[in-house]
């Protein structure tokens, strides 16, 4: 299935250096708008090194080369896929089977988006190459070089999007995501930590060009949150975020005695078609959830649903009336059960083994160490990142990419 391109800078793009950072490192040269460069490649590279721009020049060249190697065959493949979808529409009577027709039309729209994105990628690669050549003809022009560097970042971004989208082919990867964050215990540190995680995911989605909608938030008297639920209503959000499920631990002491846990749960948010899973009313128990803090004002409309055979409970409190919260909670329960069934490799929800359901609080996902040194350790992939502040600022695409690649390798085996 063709995939809409959404992922921003995966593991292949490396560390991005802003244009301002590059120029700041070399302030003694900034007053010179144009600097003569030799036509000799060695002398030209020497000038770039003197300016501190050599690594950025290499990044431009690498991005252009990568695009020239990967984009043409990818475009040929996606064009063929688009043509095949168009032929299916011509051969299919749209009125005979509306559901099948809708599926074909969605796939065609996805194919067209991918083709357009790849064409845009090729254009930006040519743009970066041309501007870079112009900047080198007789002078190193900061303005032109900046344009080339910015274009190369777009090229790397689009290539990462395409490559990552090819790995997201799980049954629910294409769906949006509903992310629930819960503080591990009462107290200032765990509740503030839970709010930091909420901020991290919001910033991550903004860096992708999308917004995460906070639909529920139970605030704490300590200034943090007891729990929150975010809905990401864009394609492939679940595919990207499914690896975030589990315990996220903030460690603030050398002996790990001072640690603040928070639990993250991620389930699909069905965007275009609702889940067709049917659950008997006899298997469900409805009750008002325990509401604390700011959420007390909407406790009257909040709904908690427990699935008796599995013991799984979900709730919804973000809507204004009880019926809407009931429907949303039911959809979350269905999504949760479908994910568990897939994890247990069973054919249906009725085959789920209750005793085999993993308690999320027993499933450590990531450690965020702030003392005596700063380090982020991803337990699932083994990835370690030294810049804790950058990760909390939403730069988690390297970890997400590593998990998706690991999952792909595991499924292939």
TrEMBL record:
What GO cellular component is one of the record's annotations? cytoplasm
Alphabetical list of Pfam families matching this protein: PCRF, RF-1
Gene Ontology molecular function? translation release factor activity
Gene3D superfamilies from the UniProt entry: 3.30.160.20, 3.30.70.1660
* Domain Peptide chain release factor, chain residue ranges per copy: 126-244
The record's section on InterPro entries has: PCRF (IPR005139), Pep_chain_release_fac_I (IPR000352), Pep_chain_release_fac_I_sf (IPR045853)
Q: Which PANTHER family match?
A: PEPTIDE CHAIN RELEASE FACTOR 2 (PTHR43116), PEPTIDE CHAIN RELEASE FACTOR PRFB3, CHLOROPLASTIC (PTHR43116:SF4)
The record's family statement is: Belongs to the prokaryotic/mitochondrial release factor family.
Q: What is this protein called?
A: Peptide chain release factor domain-containing protein
State the species of origin.
Dipteronia sinensis
């Amino acid at each position: 299935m063709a995939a809409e391109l959404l992922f921003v800078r995966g593991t292949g793009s490396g560390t991005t250096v802003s244009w301002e950072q590059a120029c700041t490192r070399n302030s003694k040269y900034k007053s010179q708008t144009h600097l003569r460069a030799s036509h000799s490649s060695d002398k030209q590279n020497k000038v770039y090194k003197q300016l501190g721009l050599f690594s950025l020049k290499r990044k431009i060249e690498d991005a252009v080369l990568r695009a020239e190697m990967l984009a043409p065959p990818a475009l040929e493949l996606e064009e063929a896929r688009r043509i095949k979808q168009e032929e299916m529409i011509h051969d299919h009577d749209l009125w005979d089977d509306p559901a099948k027709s809708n599926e074909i039309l969605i796939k065609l729209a996805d194919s067209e988006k991918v083709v357009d994105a790849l064409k845009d990628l090729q254009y930006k690669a040519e743009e970066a190459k041309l501007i870079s050549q112009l900047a080198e003809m007789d002078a190193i022009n900061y303005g032109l070089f900046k344009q080339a560097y910015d274009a190369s970042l777009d090229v790397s971004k689009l290539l990462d999007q395409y490559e990552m989208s090819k790995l997201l082919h799980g049954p629910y990867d294409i769906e949006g995501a509903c992310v629930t964050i819960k503080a591990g215990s009462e107290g200032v540190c765990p509740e503030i930590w839970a709010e930091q995680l909420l901020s991290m995911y919001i910033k991550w989605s903004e860096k992708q060009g999308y917004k995460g909608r906070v639909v529920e938030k139970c605030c704490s008297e300590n200034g943090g949150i007891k729990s929150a639920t975010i809905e990401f209503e864009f394609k492939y959000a679940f595919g990207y975020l499914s690896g975030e499920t589990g315990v996220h631990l903030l460690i603030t002491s050398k002996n790990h005695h001072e640690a603040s846990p928070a639990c993250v749960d991620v389930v699909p948010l069905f965007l275009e078609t609702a889940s067709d899973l049917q659950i008997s009313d006899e298997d469900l128990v409805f009750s008002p959830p325990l509401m604390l803090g700011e959420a007390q004002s909407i406790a009257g409309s909040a709904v908690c649903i427990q699935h008796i055979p599995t013991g799984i409970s979900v709730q919804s409190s973000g809507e204004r009336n009880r019926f809407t919260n009931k429907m949303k909670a039911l959809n979350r329960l269905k999504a949760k059960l479908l994910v568990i069934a897939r994890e247990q490799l069973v054919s249906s929800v009725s085959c789920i083994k209750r005793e085999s359901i993993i308690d999320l609080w027993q499933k450590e996902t990531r450690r965020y160490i702030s003392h005596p040194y700063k380090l982020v350790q991803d337990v699932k992939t083994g990835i370690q990142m030294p810049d804790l502040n950058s990760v909390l600022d939403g730069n988690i695409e390297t970890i997400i990419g590593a998990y998706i690649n690991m999952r792909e390798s595991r499924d292939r085996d």
